[in-house]
Amino acid sequence: AWPAEWSRNVSGEMNLEVRRGAIRMDKYGTRTAASRYWLTTARGLPDLAAVAARLRPREAQVVESVWGKRVVSVSALPSYDDKNWRVECEDGSFVLKVASAFAECRGGIDGAATEASLLFECRMMARINECGGALRAPAVCRTVAGELVAEVEPLTFARLITVVDGSPLSSRPRPRRPRDWAARLGTALAESAEALRGIDDPLERPLAWDLRRAGEARRFLSYVPAERRPLVRRALERFEQLPALPRPQLLHGDANDENVFISDDAVSLIDFGDFLVAPRCLDLAVALAYALFFDPGAEDGWLDEAARIVAAFHARSPLDDTELEALIPLAAARNCQSVLNSAYRSALDPHDPYLTISAEPAWRLLAAIDQVPPAQVVAALRRACRLPPSVAADARVDARQNHRVHDAPPPSPSPPSSLPRAAPTSRDTPEDAEPPPAAARWREALATLLAASGFAALAYLLLAAVAFAPDTPVSLSLKRKRPRDRFPCARDVQATAAPRERISP
Question: Residue 417 CB: number of other CB atoms within 10 A?
Fold first, then answer.
């Protein structure tokens, strides 16, 4: 079914040019040309069925051989660490999800733990679908051998799941969403919490996007423009002053606007890879951090919509005072994670717009939250939940508001007791200040000298720096080591983890 052209060369051989696909825009906004395949055959026409089999995409071959389905078309979907494809088959539409061991999104766990994690995701999706209600999750297709997860290559695992109805929340700006979307979202999140209650997480994985670890993203503050740093500091201070949060349980962990789908009759959750055991209100806070995004100039009304989402959640699964007071600071902390990680990753790869897809809306929401007094936010949420005014709640919020210092960086980013972070490492030092000017000049001089004179001159300068300038605020001094600026993955934050056995390619 692909366009093809036959030609004969001077030796009498037949050449076949096949074009698969068409010019399209990929997830990075790049124009991608059609794939071309050239086959040189013996004299005469070959078996066209054999030619078609050789040209079928690898993903189609996997689906047909492992799940026994007849594939019509395959198209790539945006993804972070794992790879996803939309697969159109004769009996319906599916998503092929391929995951590898040691992936950053799962905390760098090995092959056996990766397979166990994927099976646990299947169990969570089945549990949500069994509970009924307005919440849906994808259904997992079993292989020909009756398995939920197939190891298609060494340390590479695949699942085939159904496509959920509706469209992601990110594709619908707030004015284009259904009128009752906020109430439906709050009810769905409450149903998710009820469905997953009582299930224990068998895998304790340090996840980079764990909201309890939001303070660790402060190490990337130097990648943010200087005029925006006080906004992030204030939000992280509110987060770190929260009291202990109750009711830990299994959560979805990443109910962002790309993972929440809304249709006419249901709300669906996808991508359960960030599941964790944490205080119950964290899923609601993550959803608020993305569902409240607004276009420039439309900042009015975010608090009213937040109140409707929280009220619907509270009507199905009541929240206590501590949870109500923590929701908006937790949502702001998630936006801090988003903008700080995006700034760092975009500095490494400035040509990838996928890394900053949520950055500007998160900045706008952070600024809007910062302009409303916390006591006013809590009062609005209590009114929406039909709770009476609380003098004690106002006093607690005012005490935290008066305690923090607005523009000075905190002396130590220590989260509250109920939001533990990983074991301390040599990197757990304040990193929100820019490198000193002297350090910048030293590094620039070292780079220039390395390019001009080679390694010998660099070694001489290193020895001279240590001998004559031990107090210079650069990383040459043995008295203080600057932490490495890398994305916080499991291997960086879990200092007490046992060394993992290396696997050769």
Answer: 10
